[in-house]
User: Fold SDR family oxidoreductase from Streptomyces piniterrae.
Amino acid sequence: MSGALSGKTALVTGGSRGIGRAISERLGRDGARVAVHYGRDETAAKETVAAIEGAGGQAFAVRSELGVPGDAEALWAAFDEQAEGLDALVNNAGINKAVDGTLKRIGEMTTEDFDRLFAVNTKAPFFIAQQGLNRLRDGGRIINISTGLTHGATKPELIAYAMSKGAVDVFTSTLAKDLGPRGITVNAVAPGAVDTDMNAGWLRDNSEARRMVSGISPLGRVAEPADVGDIVAFLASDDSRWVTGAWIDATGGALL
Assistant:
């Protein structure tokens, strides 16, 4: 398949579901060979790979549970078995809930909850990028998925999640300065509420919540995963060559 990313190789962490799947499929349509990373859901990863290949693209699955010792090493070992060199790294994988699967305000958070959020959302992308630098070709791209919550404190029950992504924002801008001499750009994309499986319980199946979220955006609707995937595709392409260190508001104007 020819396109803006023909001949390129991309790795998308958490690339099998939700926003990650939309990113993977879009990069595949643009011609990239996509490494679809997953932690546990092998079925979803295979479905995403099949969807990319069914559309004429190329993809393969990479398994590594994030937030555990050796996660970055395991990810790159699996990647190296199937590819040589990288052109775009998308740090998309993330969690927003405590260990017990609930959302917690500061008074309810445990050290285990806090450490888990930072291990997956902050530590993993840091070391995945660190260990990927010798694989990432000059002129490459690093795209980190942040959140609009780092610029708008609207969800007290997501305080630790927002903090973990705030660190990613700093990581983005500082790494952009560090890697500029290699022609590598580093940017962050910050979505708001998106209609994904992760949000299905409170958003997709709740008409009142959908009306509320739609009303926050001047565009008057809830974001779809492809809305974010298309922004990432731009940042992965040569068209974005003069954009680096940026925090891209992908909330549909919810912060206005």
